[in-house]
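Take one protein record:
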Amino acid sequence: MFAAAGCALAAACAQPEPVPRTPRADVNLPREIETIEATVPRHATLDSLLRAHHLQEQLVLEAVSVARSVFDPRQLRAERRYRLVRSLDGLLREFEYQIDADRFLRIVSLDRARPERLDAQVLPYDKTIDVVAIDARIDGSHTSLISSIDEAGEKVQLAMELADVFSGQVDFQSDLQPGDSFRVLFEKSSHDGEFSGYGAILGAAITVDGRQLQAFRWEDPATGKAAYYDENGRSLKRFFLKSPLKFEPRVTSGFTKRRFHPLDHVFKAHLGVDYGAPSGSSVVAVAAGAVVSAGYSGAGGNMVHLKHEGGFETYYLHLSSYGPGVRAGTRVAQGQLVGRVGMTGSATGPHLDYRLKRNGVFVNPVAAHSRQAPGEPIPAVRLATFRSSRDGVLTRLSATLLADGPRQKPDAVPAITR
């Protein structure tokens, strides 16, 4: 009996052989939402864009409606980025659209239980601002400021802003020569690692046509206004801009009392400077003043006539169109658009005939602009503060260029002074 019981106990205590287990495949749960990131296709509207992603009809209508309260849906632009988060049954969770480099439209669902409740806002991008420096140079392959800045890895907007800083000292149409160079310290903003725009130019040291020029941005602590000054604290702002055109034009005919007229085939005085430029190029006022007239002038075509302080008058001839609001009796600021290059009147091609009169007599505008007096200086009581700021910019410019390494071109660097 004991033997039988022992056998039964042994059988009960014996461990069963493990049964090999077949590995189970992972269970793929269906996604509840999907995210689409793309760019707006051509000819799309906000309505058609949302419908293309199979959102429910009611939600498309509501999304367009709430968006309209903060953004004009007609301003949707092709190639701009957008991001859409939707449920698989066609409910909108979130939609973001890049309005421009600074702002984006966001439409979100406020309540999962009531998906038709949507909210729209226009929000600023969170930006990173870096201080960057470049060296650029004029050479046989890069003959303009725009192309040299592009070669240095930056965009046309930076070239435009640099030209504005030196607009009273440099004519970027005619002054540039091979070997000229530009060192620039500036702010550059980005979001999500992508370029979004330029901030202020903090300082620049340039060599143009043998002249070494410097510019420093300085904010007056008394007024809070910022302006550009040379190394000695004199304002770079001049009464006249060096030219009524920024880029690309060329001088095709100078100021002379005797020129063979290409259409009339007789010798006549040419009392201005002709700039050859593409049709539609911007023409700006070289100084603040009042509009005497803006209309057709016979052989001069469409013309704007401005009157300035100090007995000066300027004329802009052969325009294809006038600047917004430019009409007799209005005032214009220095650098304001007064018209666009054309070939109205007697002209063999698109160009600007620019003329300058002083005390009733036409004078050579190129010579008059070149003889301008230096700008107003910073008050003596604030010069020490300015010099400290200037030296900080120069140190930072050199240090940033050195840190950038490969972008630096030592043979293109102009001398800098303190």
Observations:
- Residues 1-14, 25-30, 406-418 have pLDDT under 50 and may be disordered.
